[in-house]
Amino acid sequence: MAYQIIVCGGLAPDPLQTLEPVTTPTGPGLKNELMLPNVFDPWAGHALYEAANLAKNQPGSTIKVVSLGPKAKLQQVMMTVAQKLPFELIALDGPGGGFTDAVSVSKALADAIAAIPGFDKSQALIFGGWESATRGAGVVMQMVGERLGITEQFLAVDELTVDPDGALVIKERVEGGKHQISKCAAAPAVLAWATGSLPEPPNHPQTGMANMRVMMPALQKAKPTALDPAAIAYAQVALPAVTRQTRIVKDVPAADIAAEIAAWIKQ
Amino acid sequence: MEKILVLLHTTDEGALPKAALETIAAAAVIGAYDLGVIGANAAAAAQSVSAGAAAVFAVEGEQFAQSRYATDAAAAEAIAKASGAAVIFATGTMRFNRALPGVACRLNGACETHIVAIEPDLKVHRWYYRQRMEATLSRAARPWILLLEPGAFESAPAAPGAAATPIAVTVETRTTVTGYHAPNADQQTIRPDAQLLLVAGAGWTKKQKDGATHTPEAAGLILNFVQKTQSSLGSSKSLVDLSGEGQSVLPFLSHLHQVGQTGSSPRHRKGLATCCHGEEPHVVGWRFINDRRAINLDAACGWSRGKADVLYVADSFEVMRELEKLL
Q1: Interface touch B262/A264, C-beta < 8 Å
Q2: Which CATH superfamily is domain B185-326 in?
Q3: Four-way CATH pick for B4-166: 3.90.800.10, 3.40.50.1000, 3.40.50.620, 3.10.25.10
Q4: Which domains does chain A have, with CATH numbers?
Q5: Per-residue pLDDT of chain B (327 residues; tens, 9 = 90+)
Q6: What does residue A69 show for φ and ψ, rounded to 5 degrees?
């Protein structure tokens, strides 16, 4: 079975960066946001790696990545992602921060997917992260699915296999460290991935070269995308008061530390 | 005051999850509310907690007993339309986190998840950038679905009341839930209701004082501790990644254990971090841990200092060996 795999994924600040909220004329943002190094959103990255694995095992399948973000940032990040696996980019040039409206984002992504030449919903698997590392809401994929009329949806997916009869067998995370196992008769479906089980693929320079040949024109053609800045009224965005008075216990025998911890556990 | 609907679901066994009573309590503080329940035994479950509700609705039947997007979304949509509520309070379980954002889209509304506080004027509090900053916000779009983070609100006592009005819903789906996969009870190391979270960092797999790694011993110490204290086990990303890359490290760890950036921020009363270094376990993974202690060889660890209540500057192997004798 050949699938049209569409991976929705945005950008996120490098996790090692210190983030500080600021107020801008268009609402809350991050201090030095344009200067912060970005990465492909980690959960969307897992979705992409799983997409590549599925495409490898299902001959004829294709991967397209739909990404919304400032064009310059998209170019910077995609140059890295493009080294790892073959895909085609559909770039949307617009705001990509966490304080943007998920409803508007879902509409932009769904419109972009529906407009893909040759898009066949009956073969479509819409992948993405189960939430982003920015907004962290976990709502966009479901809304994209609804807008595309796809009601077979799965959240926090860790595993997808395809049965010989074409049925999709999906493991989703549920409470208590368990997985729910479902069988979906066929595409189309929306799969919002958790971490999956695949490591990050190594860089492959030839793949990177081939990707960039088609990616640069796609970036140049990136459709300007406006989101609704008035959808959310932010009253406040603040860093939590995190500083605690840490008591340092040093040069104390391990047995004494263990006794103190044991007493603390039993409290 | 806008009309409120409290939307709940039952478990596979037909009971309400613990967080259901938290959702009811959060809504009751704001104002009068309708109640809707979806799932196995929904009508009886609704009646068991319906004392404060103005109207009560239920969608039940074999098709709705299972947690599945298509059926849950159709049922929630039907209850939302029957109630006509402008604001919908719902429990932030995986089942509703999956279904309700799509319902908001169907109803031309909006949805907020991971709500940790709600002000009387319906400003909600939630975290952004992986628990690094907290925002207070409101929306004009209606219906507005608010998924409340389990454990973040006080619980209400269960008070039975009026019987539920059943709503008939028909929906077609191509998905069948075939079962669950869970570790054996004696191998279970993720316990959401545990008092204590033990976080294991990558230091457990590094070379120790004698210049060798002691991974099997580390595995034994960690598992013994978790079993004896009935605590929940978390892990830093770096340690889980080592497992995923096929290295012979702690074999019982998976991405499900991961706390932090691409993991979870679990809620437990106490947290003990061992052999961790970095922001993820100490800040993001610990955001909702009240009482925090860390064992770390680095007294100057900037991520422990100011984040933990107590920092033990010691060798985790030595401390855990001693702890094993005491527990």
Answers
A1: no
A2: TPP-binding domain (3.40.50.1220)
A3: 3.40.50.620
A4: 4-224 (3.40.50.620)
A5: 899 999 999 999 999 998 999 999 999 999 999 999 999 999 999 999 999 999 999 999 999 999 999 999 999 999 999 999 999 999 999 999 999 999 999 999 999 999 999 999 999 999 999 888 999 999 999 999 999 999 889 998 999 999 999 999 999 999 999 999 987 666 678 888 889 999 888 888 888 888 888 888 999 999 999 989 989 988 877 777 665 555 657 778 877 888 876 677 778 889 998 887 765 555 666 777 888 899 988 887 777 777 888 999 999 999 999 999 998
A6: 180, 170
Closest Cα in chain A, distance from residue B233 (Å): 10
Closest chain A residue to the Cα of B286, Cα to Cα: A242
The H-assigned helical ranges of chain B are 18-30, 42-47, 62-65, 69-83, 94-106, 215-229, 237-244, 279, 316-326
**Smallest CA–CA separation between B162 and chain A, in Å?**
30
Per-domain residue ranges for chain B? 4-166, 185-326
Task: Mark B162-173 as b/e (b = at least 16 C-beta within 10 Å).
Answer: eebeebebebeb
Q: How far apart are CA B14 and CA B100, in angstroms?
A: 20
Nearest CA in chain B to A234: B137
Residue pairs between chains A and B whose CB atoms are closer than 8 Å: 268
User: Taking every pair of C-alpha atoms in chain B, what is the biggest distance, in angstroms?
Assistant: 70
Which residue type sits at B86? A
Task: Using CB atoms, pick whichever of B192, B244, B318 lies closest to residue A254.
Answer: B318
Flag whether residue A76 sits within 8 Å of chain B, measured between CB atoms.
no
Determine whether the interchain pair A257/B312 forms a contact, defined as Cβ–Cβ distance below 8 Å. yes
Task: Classify A247 as helix, strand or coil.
Answer: strand
Q: Inter-chain contact B181–A181, Cβ cutoff 8 Å?
A: yes
